[in-house]
């Protein structure tokens, strides 16, 4: 009985929310780029992983929240931890049942041989098998369905379980701690995921000479899912031991009933029959402060969940950094921004003893500020000059490319080389332009360096010779392996404004939750949270990653082609990506602010 108190319940729930957050929002987002490269996925397809999670969470969440209102909430929470743990282990399964990853361009020299023809072997493989690794997309989707089915229980039944077992005055602090740790979980996932991504995907095997700066690099994305899967199974054990009601439950119940507002007269026994579902739903939908707060949270989630899913990928593309560094940077912003915002929201509510009305006004003010700060996505860097993508093949210097030539990697300088279009092996020319492969640069010779990353190519017909300023000699047509470095100092300003945007977004989390809990009667709390998360997930979290993924795919200027099908993207138009994400974020942030205003207006 020593552990039978709210503090220990909070402790084990905190472990639950940290580990699940690490896996769901941290490791999944960190793994996106590696998954797309390893399993040849488009961003829209990787976005569907989040959507599968949300569909399962919405459907299972609304059903469990309805029945759990009269059931053993602690038991529901423990079972959900087991389901999440199994889902994490299933997500890592494709790594163990596939062959080792062989990056394109690491077999053979990739040089230009005049009058060569493209081998038909790859075409025969396509005719017989298609692209075999892409089928694992469905394994990832199934794993996400399991994780989604389990995790939503925390935010409906679990939050109600905590709220009803603590005093009303302490509830906001408990909720703030859980919600804050929910933000720290992804942050830890970002940071630890960055460490894992510095390891080769088939660790402890070697990386074939490929460096983390190479677009073909795939990190050990699977390690985090193993750690979290096992962790959730362990956390479920103490959760099974908690009783249905903790000590002082009845005393706290009377205190909450005195603080409850609303005209709903739904009987306390609702939840015993599915026939009660329509009437209970109607009571909540007609509760205007409640429904407008939920709609505002839905609009916010549409933007936030989409951004969270692809934030490391966005940073990696915009600022030409590695997947590991992008993960570290994302974590550094998530910890103080989201976590600090949630803590600040909970502290301000307790310090000013905010009523539901005050909390509604608070949400509106910070909703407006978050609209302004979304302008962070105007800050970015230009795309790395790439022959055939944004500068003409054979150009002496960087110059604009005609729209009709975008994606055409062949010119007079490499037309007789017979270069394969699906063997991405980037090299950086002496002219500062990146080429798809040594063959596409027309390179006919290579040094005998023992290490792949130090190889230098020469006699490259697509790289014009240049005359130095101080002599009459010429610089040989040479190139080194890898993408050309980019000079851009916009990352710090971007991160500063992004931090403000996250702070203004997450500071509303605790006040919004308290508005929901204080605008419905005792008997409806679990179901009210369940209905909230149903709408947030189906209308916000579900389409958000799909829409952001579509915008990222739309800004792709150089696709990987496998068996005649576009798979992963090698190069993006950074400016177009930034404008599309900005338009998306600003539109739905403004809509959410309008809903917060209406919730405040009708609360008065």
Automatic annotation (TrEMBL):
PROSITE patterns assigned: KAZAL_2, MFS
Main subcellular localisation:
membrane
What membrane topology does the UniProt entry give? Multi-pass membrane protein
> In this protein, which residues make up the domain named Major facilitator superfamily (MFS) profile?
9-604
Q: Name one GO cellular component term.
A: plasma membrane
Residue ranges spanning the membrane: these are 9-32, 52-69, 76-97, 135-161, 173-200, 220-242, 289-308, 328-349, 361-380, 581-603
What would you give as a GO molecular function for this chain, any one?
A: transmembrane transporter activity
**InterPro entries hit by this protein:** Kazal_dom (IPR002350), Kazal_dom_sf (IPR036058), MFS_dom (IPR020846), MFS_trans_sf (IPR036259), OATP (IPR004156)
Keywords associated with the record: Cell membrane, Disulfide bond, Ion transport, Membrane, Transmembrane, Transmembrane helix, Transport
Return the Pfam families for the record: Kazal_2, OATP
Which intervals hold domain Kazal-like? 407-464
Compartments where found: Cell membrane
Gene Ontology BP annotations? monoatomic ion transport
Spell out the family assignment given in the record's similarity comment.
Belongs to the organo anion transporter (TC 2.A.60) family.
What protein am I looking at?
Answer: Solute carrier organic anion transporter family member
């Amino acid at each position: 009985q020593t552990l039978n108190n709210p503090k220990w319940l909070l402790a084990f729930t905190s472990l639950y929310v940290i580990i699940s957050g690490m896996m769901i929002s941290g490791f999944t987002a960190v793994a996106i780029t590696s998954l797309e490269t390893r399993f040849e996925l488009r961003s829209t397809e990787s976005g569907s992983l989040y959507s599968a999670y949300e569909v399962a969470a919405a459907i299972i969440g609304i059903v469990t929240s309805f029945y759990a209102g009269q059931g053993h909430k602690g038991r529901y929470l423990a079972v959900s931890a087991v389901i999440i743990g199994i889902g994490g282990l299933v997500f890592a399964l494709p790594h163990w049942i596939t062959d080792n990853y062989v990056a394109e361009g690491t077999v053979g020299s990739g040089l230009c041989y005049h009058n060569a023809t493209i081998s038909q072997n790859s075409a025969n493989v396509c005719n017989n098998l298609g692209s075999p690794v892409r089928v694992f997309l469905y394994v990832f989707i199934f794993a996400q369905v399991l994780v989604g089915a389990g995790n939503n229980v925390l935010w409906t039944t679990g939050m109600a379980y905590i709220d009803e077992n603590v005093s009303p005055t302490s509830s906001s602090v408990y909720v703030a701690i859980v919600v804050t740790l929910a933000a720290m979980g992804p942050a830890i996932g970002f940071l630890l995921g960055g460490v894992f991504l510095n390891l080769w995907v088939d660790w402890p095997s070697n990386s074939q000479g490929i460096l983390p700066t190479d677009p073909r690099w795939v990190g050990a994305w699977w390690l985090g899912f193993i750690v979290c899967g096992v962790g959730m199974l362990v956390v479920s054990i103490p959760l099974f031991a908690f009783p249905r009601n903790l000590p002082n439950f009845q005393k706290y119940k009377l205190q909450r009933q005195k603080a409850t507002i609303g005209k709903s007269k739904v009987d306390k026994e609702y939840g015993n029959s599915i026939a009660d579902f329509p009437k209970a739903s109607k009571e909540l939908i007609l509760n205007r402060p409640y429904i407008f707060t939920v709609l505002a949270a839905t609009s916010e989630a549409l933007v936030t969940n989409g951004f969270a899913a692809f934030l490391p990928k966005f940073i990696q593309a915009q600022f030409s950094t590695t997947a590991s560094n992008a993960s570290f940077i994302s974590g550094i912003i998530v910890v103080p921004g989201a976590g600090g915002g949630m803590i600040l929201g909970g502290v301000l509510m307790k310090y000013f003893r905010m009523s539901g009305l005050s909390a509604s006004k608070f949400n509106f003010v910070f909703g407006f500020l978050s609209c302004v700060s979304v302008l962070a996505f105007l800050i970015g860097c230009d795309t790395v000059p790439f022959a055939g993508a944004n500068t003409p093949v054979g150009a002496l210097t960087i110059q604009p490319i005609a729209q009709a030539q975008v994606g055409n990697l062949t010119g007079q300088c490499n037309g007789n080389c017979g270069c394969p279009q699906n063997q991405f092996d980037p090299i950086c020319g002496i002219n500062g332009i990146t080429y798809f492969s040594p063959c596409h640069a027309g390179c006919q010779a290579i040094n005998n360096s023992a290490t792949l990353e130090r190889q230098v190519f020469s006699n490259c017909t697509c790289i014009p010779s240049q005359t130095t300023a101080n002599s009459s000699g010429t610089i040989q047509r040479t190139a080194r392996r890898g993408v050309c470095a980019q000079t851009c100092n916009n990352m710090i300003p971007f991160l500063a404004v992004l931090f403000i945007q996250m702070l203004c977004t997450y500071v509303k989390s605790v006040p919004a939750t308290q508005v929901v809990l204080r605008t419905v009667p005792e008997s409806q709390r679990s179901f009210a949270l369940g209905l909230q998360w149903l709408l947030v997930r189906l209308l916000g979290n579900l389409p958000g990653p799909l829409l952001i993924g579509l915008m990222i795919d739309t800004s792709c200027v150089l696709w990987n082609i496998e068996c005649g099908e576009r798979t992963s993207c090698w190069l993006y138009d950074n400016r177009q990506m930034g404008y599309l994400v900005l338009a998306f974020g600003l539109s739905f942030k403004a809509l959410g602010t309008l809903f917060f205003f209406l919730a405040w207006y009708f609360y008065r």
